From TrEMBL:
Cellular component GO terms, alphabetical: outer membrane-bounded periplasmic space
This protein's name: Bifunctional UDP-sugar hydrolase/5'-nucleotidase
Organism of derivation: Paenibacillus aurantius
SUPFAM superfamilies (alphabetical): 5'-nucleotidase (syn. UDP-sugar hydrolase), C-terminal domain, Metallo-dependent phosphatases
PANTHER family reported in the protein's UniProt record: 5'-NUCLEOTIDASE-RELATED (PTHR11575), 5-NUCLEOTIDASE FAMILY PROTEIN (PTHR11575:SF23)
Record key words, sorted: Hydrolase, Nucleotide-binding, Signal
Assigned protein family: Belongs to the 5'-nucleotidase family.
GO BP terms, alphabetized: nucleotide catabolic process
Residue stretches making up the 5'-Nucleotidase C-terminal domain: 291-426
GO molecular function terms listed in the Swiss-Prot or TrEMBL record: 5'-nucleotidase activity; metal ion binding; nucleotide binding; UDP-sugar diphosphatase activity
Length: 482
């Protein structure tokens, strides 16, 4: 037996259901497998392969992604927050039930049992040419959200330390698949010894060559399937140690599309159209949306948030809704198209002064036209605030932050010092969009409902539709009330 065993890991991360890239990913992987024939090879994904923005994922609840991963020949995957938080625990288990690869969730425990469920593994050890490669996989730590879905997610640093001792005893090489982000990966390399390679994800960072901290090499393949990462290692059996760790990324743009993957995606695209053609409601009038001012559809969603969480006030940014709805039959697919973001309702206690600041900013183009990336948002611009439970009188020609003349909360003047229970979207609590909305206290999130789920019910409620017509924002003219 030769003394040095070559090992290769192909890796992807944060593909976010960019199905158009998946056939090219499969082609690159096949080329690399041929190039490294004879090496001990493993193919892994670092999470957020799924994204319910895409109709194939939405209609199949992730099964389309798993089918494509099977086609590409993955060996291991770690669920990212887009898998773990946009699908119920049962739906996630169903999606992975068809996987021909192992799923690692080293810090995902069930709330009821206190154990990692049987369809997940705390770690995996794969034998490649007589060399044992141990894989630990951790996902981003969002306990407030995971707890609502029946998960008891563990703090990842503690989970890594817990499993590392056992894996290090059983494996020759240890690889951490981390859906935590580059800052956490650096900390892990600095603080936890015994990890040979970290394959990163979550923050969409691209490392074209390994970042080396101590004895750990950190690698990552960017986002959206634009690259496939390749780690090349050599393990010296006599020395019992890695003697080489190198890595690079291979662009997928311009590559041919692997035919089998194309056929799989085409099949799910066709079936998803059928599923999403199911009628959701019939409208007797169109419901418009305007990103820079209030509109009936935005008012409807704000009212729905207020009602859903049992609040005094409802708030949502108009940019959550990409289009209005026409008169006639509205399908599930149309609701998905106009409201694709995997964003959930929440409720907070919001100080009147913070609310007033956000309302003032809603009248400023630097906020309404602000592009937002990530944090669940799948729209284009932030948009103005659509509200419910409020009556806002303002002067369009007033100075910034001095445009609003009065605000009534359910008929009573806004008290800057008072706390108001407010129904809004989880994105605002991450200090995204209107910053003062993140100052709320006693935050409560509502999962697994998305905004489009609320809309589906609201479109069937004639009273709610009627209440969305009156204007909440009233412009004044020349300093006098209109």
């Amino acid at each position: 037996m030769k003394q040095v065993q070559k090992l290769v890991i192909l890796h992807t991360n944060d593909i976010h259901s960019h199905f158009e890239a998946m056939p090219r990913i499969a082609t690159v992987m096949r080329k690399l497998r041929r190039e490294h024939a004879g090496a001990g090879l493993v193919t892994v994904d670092g999470g957020d392969h799924m994204d319910r923005m895409r109709q194939e994922t939405e209609a199949s609840l992730g099964k389309a992604n798993v089918a494509v991963m099977n086609e590409a020949g993955y060996d291991l995957a770690v669920p990212g927050n887009n898998e773990g938080l946009t699908l119920s625990k049962n739906d996630l288990e169903k999606a992975y039930s068809g996987a021909r690869f192992e799923i690692i969730g080293s810090n995902l425990y069930e709330s009821g049992t206190g154990r990692i469920p049987s369809w997940l593994k705390p770690y995996s050890i794969l034998d490649r040419g007589g060399v044992r490669i141990g894989f630990i996989g951790v996902t981003a730590y969002f306990p407030a959200f995971y707890n609502l879905l029946g998960w008891d997610i563990q703090e990842p640093f503690g989970s890594i330390r817990h499993w590392l001792k056992e894996v290090r005893e059983r494996a020759d090489v240890v690889v951490l698949i981390s859906h935590l982000g580059i800052a956490h990966d650096r900390r892990i390399a600095e603080e936890i010894s015994g990890i040979d390679v970290i394959l990163g994800a979550h923050t969409h960072h691209l490392l074209e060559e390994p970042l080396r901290i101590g004895g750990t090499a950190i690698l990552a393949a960017g986002k959206w399937g634009q690259y496939v990462g390749c780690v090349e290692m050599e393990y010296d059996r006599e020395a019992g140690a890695l003697v080489k760790v190198e890595g690079r990324v291979y662009p997928t743009e311009g590559e041919a599309e692997e035919p089998g993957t194309v056929r799989t995606i085409d099949g799910y695209e066709s079936s998803s159209r059928t599923v999403l053609q199911e009628p959701a409601a019939v409208l007797n009038r169109p419901l418009p949306i305007h990103w820079h001012e209030e509109s009936e559809l935005g008012n409807l969603l704000a009212a729905g948030l207020r009602s859903w969480v049992g609040a005094e006030i409802g708030l949502v940014n108009a940019g959550q809704l990409l289009e209005g709805l026409p008169k006639g039959t509205v399908t599930r697919g149309e609701l998905h198209r106009i409201c694709p973001s995997p964003i959930n309702p929440c409720s907070v206690n919001l100080k009147g002064s913070d609310l007033l600041t956000a309302l003032e900013e809603s009248l400023l183009p630097e906020f309404t036209e602000k592009p937002i990336m990530g944090f669940g948002f799948r729209g284009k611009v932030l948009g103005a605030l659509c509200v419910d439970g409020l009556q806002v009188d303002y002067d369009p020609d007033g100075e910034p932050y001095r445009k609003i003349r009065s605000v009534l909360v359910n008929g009573e003047p806004l008290d800057p010092a008072r706390l108001y229970r407010t129904g809004m979207i989880d994105m605002f609590t991450f200090r995204v969009g209107y910053p003062t909305l993140a100052e709320g206290t006693e935050v409560r999130y509502f999962l697994p409902e998305f905004l489009r789920d609320l809309l589906a019910g609201l479109l069937l409620d004639e009273e709610a539709l009627a209440r969305a017509v009156p204007r909440r924002w009233r412009p004044s003219s020349s300093g006098k009330e209109a």
